[in-house]
Write a structure and sequence with these properties.
alpha/beta; eight-stranded parallel beta sheet; 12 strands; globular; single chain; 39% helix; TIM Barrel; two-stranded antiparallel sheet
Length: 344
C-alpha cells in the first residue's frame, strides 16, 4: 500500500526563519535578563510569585497585542510581588484531532490551514510582544520539532496533559534552556508527571531534526497540576492542600532539583468554569499561608484570561473573546492580579 500522505512543500528551517526575521541586540538582552529572573524564582532566590496568564489560544494578533499591552501596565503595578509570564499559545491540541489548532495552522481562523504563513505569523507575534512590552511568553510544546522556530523568544514552555508521557517531549525538554512545566496527565497519575520531570532534568542523547544531539538536563523542569478526569468523565481537581503535600513528598522522594508546582486554575481543576479560577487561586494562596512547605513549593499559577469573559464560536467574531476554552475577561483579571499581589 502506498503512503497516504501528500508532501505539499518544504518549510524553511528554524535557522533560516531566524535569519529572515532576526532579533536586535536590545531584544536579545531583554530575553536574557528575563531568563535569569525567572530562573532565580525557580531556585528560590527571588520570592516573587509567578503568574502564567493570558488567552487560552492566541487567535488574532491585534487582540493579543492589546491584551499584552494592558497586561504590561498591570505587571508594572505589581512587579515587586508578581512576576508575569504571558500565555501566547499559538498551537492547540484537539481531543478529537479536528478543529482550530491555533495560529501555527491558521493565521486567520476563518481561512484554510497554511503552515508556512503560520510559522511566520507566530514568530512575528512573539517578536511584536517582546518589542511592545518587553515580555517573553509561554508556549505549549505541542510539536517538539517546532520549538526552535521560537527558541530565541520564549521564556517558558508547558508540556500538555496528553503529551507528558511522550518520550520525545520529555527528552527535548531536557535541552530547551528555559523552565518547562510538565502537566499531570488527564488520568491524574502523578507518577507520570514526576517521571517526565525526572527525564527532563537529566542528560539525554537522541535524534532531533536530523541531528544526533546531547543535552545537559533542565534543572527547571517542574510540575503543573491541572486536575484530571475519572473513568466516568467527571472532573477531579488536584489543587487541594493534601494534593500539594503529596507532590511535595514525591519531589523529596525522587531527589529532584528546584521543587516547584504551578497550579493550573482552569481545565479540570475548574471543570472549565472559567470564573471558578478566582476562587481556586485564592484557595491556593490560603494553602501557601498555612504551610511553609507549600509556600516554598507552589511558586505560581496558570490562569486563562483574555479581554472578554467566556468563549465563542469562530463565526461570532467578538474581539478579544476566546475561540477555544472560556477565559476570564480583563476587568476580572485586573482585580484578581491585584488581590493576589496583596496575598503573596
Amino acid at each position: 500500500m502506498e503512503m497516504q500522505m501528500e508532501f505539499i512543500r518544504q518549510l524553511p528551517k528554524p535557522q533560516q526563519l531566524k535569519e529572515q526575521f532576526p532579533l536586535d541586540s536590545q531584544l536579545k538582552e531583554i530575553k536574557e535578563r528575563r531568563d535569569d529572573e525567572l530562573a532565580a524564582i525557580f531556585r528560590g532566590e527571588d520570592k516573587r510569585f509567578i503568574l502564567v496568564i493570558g488567552p487560552c489560544s492566541a487567535d488574532r494578533e491585534d487582540a493579543v497585542l492589546d491584551y499584552m499591552e494592558r497586561l504590561k501596565k498591570l505587571s508594572d503595578e505589581v512587579e515587586d510581588k508578581i512576576y508575569i509570564v504571558p500565555r501566547c499559545y499559538t498551537n492547540k491540541p484537539r481531543t478529537k484531532g479536528v478543529g482550530y489548532k491555533g495560529m501555527l495552522h491558521q493565521p486567520d481562523p476563518t481561512k484554510e490551514e497554511d503552515m508556512l504563513a503560520g510559522i511566520i505569523a507566530i514568530r512575528k507575534l512573539h517578536t511584536d510582544i517582546l518589542k511592545n512590552t518587553g515580555f517573553t511568553c509561554a508556549e505549549e510544546m505541542l510539536y517538539p520539532e517546532n520549538h526552535r522556530y521560537l527558541s530565541d523568544l520564549l521564556g517558558y514552555v508547558a508540556v500538555g496533559a496528553r503529551s507528558v508521557e511522550n518520550q520525545q517531549h520529555r527528552i527535548v525538554s531536557s535541552g530547551v534552556g528555559i523552565p518547562v512545566g510538565m502537566k499531570n496527565p488527564t488520568s491524574g497519575d502523578l507518577g507520570v508527571m514526576m517521571n517526565a520531570i525526572y527525564a527532563a532534568q537529566n542528560r539525554q542523547r537522541f535524534v532531533y531534526r536530523g541531528w544526533e544531539v546531547q543535552t545537559t538536563g533542565n534543572q527547571y523542569a517542574h510540575a503543573i497540576l491541572r486536575g484530571s478526569v475519572d473513568r466516568y468523565g467527571r472532573t477531579m481537581p488536584n489543587y487541594y492542600y493534601e494534593d500539594l503535600q503529596r507532590v511535595n513528598e514525591l519531589y523529596e522522594n525522587m531527589h529532584l532539583r528546584n521543587a516547584t508546582v504551578i497550579v493550573d486554575t482552569n481545565h479540570s481543576n475548574s471543570g472549565k468554569h472559567y470564573e471558578e479560577q478566582i476562587r481556586i487561586a485564592k484557595d491556593i494562596m490560603h494553602s501557601r499561608r498555612h504551610s511553609g512547605d507549600i509556600n516554598r513549593l507552589v511558586k505560581g499559577l496558570m490562569i486563562e484570561s483574555y479581554l472578554e469573559d467566556g468563549a465563542q464560536t469562530i463565526d461570532e467574531g467578538v474581539y478579544g473573546k476566546s475561540i477555544t476554552d472560556p477565559c476570564l475577561g480583563w476587568e476580572k483579571t485586573e482585580s484578581l492580579v491585584r488581590e493576589l499581589a496583596e496575598e503573596v
